[in-house]
């Protein structure tokens, strides 16, 4: 004859509930993590797109260059650069670099804000040589780079 | 199930993110597109600068929009390039008006709202900035600050060779040749400066108004300015026109107009000359003084002479004017022809009476005793030129004695010796025998001169003024101690030395005159300052020597201002040195010689110009009596050596006070009378005579001799002339061939033309029919004219429809016309010949 003995075990419902709970917990965690990543990606995208859009919209031009032999008394020479913002958003001039065959000088600009449709004069001391062309490069805070050449006569 | 939910959530999130990203990218894309569009607009924006001028010393820029977008000028920079040291002159401003221009539109007056005035003489650099950031720059320069080569100027006289009395266009082109985008502003030329070269009658009259200036000349552009001038004078006269720019850089260009016969394109070089009715016209504002007196009224039984706008046609008349003349002989009159229909209107302006004349070197009392040696030392004459006309008076200059003009004696020049190295010698006339020249082999002679010195010799020293010696003889005029003048000579005969010495001191720095003479043989005269009757001295010394004593052979050359054996230099001035062989001047003649005849005030004339009626009675005074002082005209002993003098000046700038425009109206039946009088009362009592020449065709390159010139009549109607043509008689016109080739005259183009002065009668012409006795027609040319040959051309009676028989045509009517003769032909070198003779005003009867 077989004999039956009694053993203790989980029922199907309980295991299902445990499985559901586990899935829910894991799934929630995954979704939360995924959403977090997505938000991060969105922010990065928004920032990048905004910066690039602003940079595209930023339109500075070098309107005029004047060579000044000296101010009040010699001998220091100056290059006066007038920059005009013809774009629709404000810009900030960050650096002006002036070069000629023998000199390369970068000038950090402190107050370089230029509103739309406005101009600002930047005067920088530079030992230019009459008749020798110089290159003036302007870099904005957004990274826009414009340049021009001029020669004193 | 749960997995599906999460899957859905994940998918939805992903889709949402992707969608968002797409939107962001789309916005970015739009920004890029917008930026590209802006860049494209910057390229599409295009404009050009049409003109740049100054208005009220402010910029006035005209812009043409050549693009497809409106342009807004937001900034103008102006830099004064003449300021190179601080403080630099750099201005910028934002135009507030007139700063927007539509596509294909034009924007004017840009820059007029700039509040700072500009100096139009300075160079400026201008920069225009648009709202899109386009920049255009250019320079503005006035001609003064443009270097040579940056302005190209050329002057053309077209044509450069014209017949007398024709006009030429003087054309100036100015090109802006500056590099870069540089404009030239205020381009305006000065009126041409005219230099005349040729005869005294050369006249240049501007016939057009001055051309308008160019406010702006763009890069590479050319401005053109034109003047029209009439040039009249003699063949070969030249007028050179020099032109520069106002406020220019000093650049000048020039071209020359020459009066020459007009030849056709084939350039025949044969020259036809007229010897016909007249010998060509004069300018309509010139009245030539002629010697004929036909059809002229008389004044005190003395007929006036003709004057009209026709050149000289006679062998010349010499009128002598001197103090011995009494009225009416001392007055010479010229009058124009009367006419019943013509009117000549002369506007206000300068008049000139030009006289050709020569001066008699001697006063009247010495006319029959001209000096054999005469040195006047006048300006314009070589120092060594003798004016006596006798050969052999050769003066040699030692030490470079020169003519002086300061503090002259009579306005004329003189010579000054330094008293140490300078002197003259005058060659002794070879042959002797008392012939012409300075030969002393005579028993009578005279020497005179003016002198001046402020120092006198001392002791036994002397200053030689005039000395010759040789063979133991001498003849001397000198200054001795005390400033006295002594005349001494030695002929090596009884009584020996003959001397006349003055008593006064003449070394006072003033001019003094001496006449030293040998009345005969061994006698001497010395007249100082005109002699005693004139307040001077008369010294006479008579000896018991032979009256016929002469100097023998052996005398050497004459020394002036030094002794022949060196020394005794004369430190002073000398003028009008004269010597007479065989003529001792009397005290009276010495007084007559003591004058200021050989300088600037030799002759005094009175000139009056009047308007008369047809009979010659004076109606109105055009020029009230004006005194004209004429200088001595030295003919240097050559009777045909004439001088020309223009009587003009402020007193001859005339305007008719009775006319609102100052115009003198010589209406029909009125004439112009010119009266020239020898004013004896105004002359020096011993004034030398004057020889006045008129109407002399033999004087080369002078078709006027003496004439009156006045402002060109307006309209250009000349005074009626004395030329008449009886139309019932055959019209004959003579030409001669001056070479270099032989010529034939042809029927075609050879005509006699009568142009109406008033268009009331119409114009008429006649055809050539014969040349000498040879018929000229469509089948037959005139006979060959070799060089020097003459041809008498005959013409049909002038009609309005010129033909051989004149059938159906109107014959020329009586009246006043301008007559021309047109001659055509060809020469032996195959060249075509054309020549037009303008005869002048002619009365047809």
Please outline the major beta sheet of chain B. Answer: 11 strands, mixed
Low-confidence runs of chain A = none
- Outline type of chain A: rod-shaped
Indicate the structural class of chain B. mainly beta
Tell me the major beta sheet of chain A: 5 strands, antiparallel
Estimate what percentage of residues of chain B fall within beta strands: 35-45%
The low-pLDDT segments of chain B are 262-280
Number of discrete helical segments of chain B: 2
Rg over C-alpha atoms of chain A, rounded to the nearest angstrom: 33 Å
Percent of sequence in beta strands of chain A: 35-45%
Number of helices of chain A: 1
Question: Percent of residues of chain A in helical segments?
Answer: 25-40%
Radius of gyration of chain B: 42 Å
Report the span from N to C terminus of chain B: 142 Å
Helix content of chain B: under 10%
Number of strands of chain A: 8
Termini distance of chain A? 124 Å
Largest interface: A-B, 33 and 35 residues
Gist of the model:
The complex is a heterodimer of chains A (153) and B (845). Chain A has 153 residues and is α+β, with helices and mostly antiparallel strands. Chain A contains one helix and eight strands.
Explained architecture:
The complex is a heterodimer of chains A (153) and B (845). In chain A, strands 3, 4, 5, 7 and 8 form a five-stranded antiparallel beta sheet that branches. A three-stranded antiparallel beta sheet of chain A has the order 1-2-6, with no helix packed on it. Helices cover 30% and strands 36% of the residues of chain A. Chain A has one helix spanning 12-57; strands spanning 60-68, 78-85, 91-100, 103-108, 113-114, 119-125, 134-140, 145-150. In chain A, a hairpin with a 2-residue loop joins strand 3 (91-100) and strand 4 (103-108). Chain B has 845 residues and is mainly beta. In chain B, the strands form twelve sheets. In chain B, strands 20, 23, 24, 25, 28, 44, 45, 46, 49, 50 and 51 form an eleven-stranded mixed beta sheet that branches. In chain B, strands 19, 52, 53, 54, 55, 56, 57, 58, 59 and 60 form a ten-stranded mixed beta sheet that branches. Chain B is extended, with a radius of gyration of 42 Å. Residues 262-280 of chain B have low confidence and may be disordered. Chain A binds chain B through residues 20, 23-24, 27, 30-31, 34-35, 38, 41-42, 45-46, 49, 52-53, 56-57, 59, 61, 63-64, 66, 68-72, 82, 84, 86, 117, 119, and chain B through 2-3, 5-6, 9-10, 13, 17, 20-21, 24-25, 27-28, 31-32, 34-35, 38, 74-75, 77, 79, 84-86, 88, 90, 92, 127, 129, 131-133, 135.
């Amino acid at each position: 004859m077989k004999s039956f003995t009694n053993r203790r075990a989980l029922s199907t419902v309980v295991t299902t509930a445990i499985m559901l709970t586990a899935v829910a917990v894991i799934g929630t965690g995954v979704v939360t993590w995924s959403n977090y990543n997505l938000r991060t990606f969105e922010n990065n995208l928004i920032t990048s797109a905004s910066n690039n859009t602003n940079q595209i919209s930023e339109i500075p031009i070098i309107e005029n260059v004047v060579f000044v032999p000296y101010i009040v008394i010699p001998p220091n020479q100056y290059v006066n650069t007038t920059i005009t913002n013809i774009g629709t958003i404000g810009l900030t001039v960050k650096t002006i670099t002036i070069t000629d065959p023998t000199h390369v000088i970068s000038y950090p600009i402190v107050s370089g804000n230029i509103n739309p449709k406005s101009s600002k004069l930047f005067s920088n001391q530079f030992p230019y040589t009459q008749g020798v062309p110089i290159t003036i490069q302007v870099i904005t805070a957004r990274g826009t780079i414009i340049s021009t050449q001029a020669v004193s006569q | 199930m749960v997995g599906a939910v999460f899957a859905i959530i994940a998918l939805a999130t992903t889709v949402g993110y992707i969608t968002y990203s797409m939107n962001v990218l789309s916005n970015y894309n739009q920004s890029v597109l917008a930026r590209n569009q802006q860049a494209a607009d910057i390229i599409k924006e295009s404009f050009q600068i049409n003109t740049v001028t100054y208005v009220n010393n402010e910029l006035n820029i005209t812009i043409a929009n050549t693009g497809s977008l409106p342009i807004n000028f937001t900034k103008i920079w102006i830099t004064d390039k003449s300021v190179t040291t601080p403080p630099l002159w750099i201005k910028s401003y934002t135009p507030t008006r007139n700063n927007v221009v539509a596509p294909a539109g034009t924007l004017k007056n840009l820059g007029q709202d700039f509040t700072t005035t500009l100096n139009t003489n300075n160079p400026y650099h201008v920069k225009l900035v648009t709202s899109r950031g386009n920049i255009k720059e250019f320079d503005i320069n006035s001609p003064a600050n443009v270097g040579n080569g940056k302005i190209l100027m050329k002057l053309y006289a077209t044509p450069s060779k014209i017949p007398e009395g024709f006009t030429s266009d003087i054309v100036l082109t100015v090109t802006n040749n500056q590099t870069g985008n540089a404009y030239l502003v205020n381009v305006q030329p000065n009126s041409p400066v005219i230099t005349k070269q040729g005869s005294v009658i050369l006249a240049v009259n501007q016939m057009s108004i001055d051309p308008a200036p160019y406010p702006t000349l763009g890069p590479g552009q050319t401005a053109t300015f034109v003047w029209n001038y009439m040039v009249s004078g003699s063949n070969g006269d030249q007028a050179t026109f020099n032109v520069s720019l106002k406020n220019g850089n000093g650049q000048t260009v020039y071209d020359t107009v020459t009066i020459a016969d007009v030849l056709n394109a084939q350039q025949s070089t044969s020259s036809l000359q007229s010897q016909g009715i007249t010998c060509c016209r004069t300018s309509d504002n010139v009245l030539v003084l002629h010697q004929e007196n036909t059809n002229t009224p008389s004044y005190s039984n003395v007929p006036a002479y003709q004057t009209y706008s026709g050149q000289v046609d006679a062998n010349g008349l010499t009128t002598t004017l001197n103090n011995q003349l009494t009225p009416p002989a001392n007055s010479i009159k010229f009058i124009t022809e009367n006419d019943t229909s013509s009117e000549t209107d002369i506007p206000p302006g300068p008049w000139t009476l030009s006289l050709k004349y020569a001066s008699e070197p001697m006063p009247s009392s010495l006319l029959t005793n001209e000096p054999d040696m005469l040195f006047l030392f006048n300006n314009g004459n070589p120092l060594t030129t003798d004016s006596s006309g006798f050969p052999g008076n050769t003066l040699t200059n030692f030490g470079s004695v020169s003519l002086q003009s300061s503090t002259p004696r009579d306005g004329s020049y003189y010579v000054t010796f330094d008293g140490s190295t300078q002197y003259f010698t005058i060659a002794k006339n070879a042959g002797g025998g008392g012939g012409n020249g300075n030969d002393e082999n005579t028993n009578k002679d005279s020497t005179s001169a003016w002198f001046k010195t402020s120092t006198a010799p001392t002791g036994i020293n002397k200053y030689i003024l005039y000395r010759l010696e040789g063979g133991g003889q001498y003849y001397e005029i000198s200054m001795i101690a005390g400033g006295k003048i002594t005349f001494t000579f030695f002929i090596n005969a009884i009584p020996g030395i003959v001397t006349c010495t003055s008593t006064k001191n003449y070394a006072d720095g003033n001019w003094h005159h001496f006449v030293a003479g040998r009345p005969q043989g061994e006698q001497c005269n010395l007249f100082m300052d005109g002699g005693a009757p004139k307040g001077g001295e008369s010294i006479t010394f008579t000896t018991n020597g032979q009256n016929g004593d002469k100097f023998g052979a052996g005398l050497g050359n004459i020394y002036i201002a030094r002794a022949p054996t060196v020394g005794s230099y004369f430190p002073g001035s000398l003028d009008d040195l004269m010597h007479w062989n065989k003529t001792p001047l009397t005290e009276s003649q010495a007084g007559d010689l003591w004058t200021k005849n050989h300088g600037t005030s030799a002759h005094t004339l009175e000139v009056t110009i009047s308007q008369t009626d047809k009979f010659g009675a004076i109606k109105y005074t055009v020029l009230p009596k004006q005194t004209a002082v004429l200088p001595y005209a030295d003919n240097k002993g050559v009777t045909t050596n004439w001088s020309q003098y223009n009587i003009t000046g402020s007193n001859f700038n005339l305007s008719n006070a009775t006319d609102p425009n100052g115009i003198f109206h010589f209406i029909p039946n009125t004439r112009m009378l010119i009266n020239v009088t020898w004013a004896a009362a105004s002359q020096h009592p011993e004034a030398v005579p004057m020889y006045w020449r008129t109407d002399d065709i033999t004087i080369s390159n002078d078709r006027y001799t003496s004439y009156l010139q006045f402002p060109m009549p307006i309209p250009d109607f000349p005074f009626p002339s004395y030329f008449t043509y009886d139309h019932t008689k055959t019209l004959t016109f003579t030409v001669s061939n001056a070479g270099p080739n032989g010529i034939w005259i042809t029927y075609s183009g050879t005509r006699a033309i009568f142009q109406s002065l008033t268009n009331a009668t119409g114009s008429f012409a006649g055809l050539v029919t014969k040349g000498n006795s040879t018929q000229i027609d469509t089948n037959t040319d005139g006979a060959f004219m070799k060089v020097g040959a003459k041809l008498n051309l005959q013409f049909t009676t002038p009609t309005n429809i010129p033909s051989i028989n004149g059938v159906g045509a109107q014959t020329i009517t009586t009246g006043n016309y301008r007559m021309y003769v047109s001659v055509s032909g060809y020469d032996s070198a195959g060249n075509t010949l054309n020549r037009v003779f303008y005869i002048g005003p002619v009365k047809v009867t």
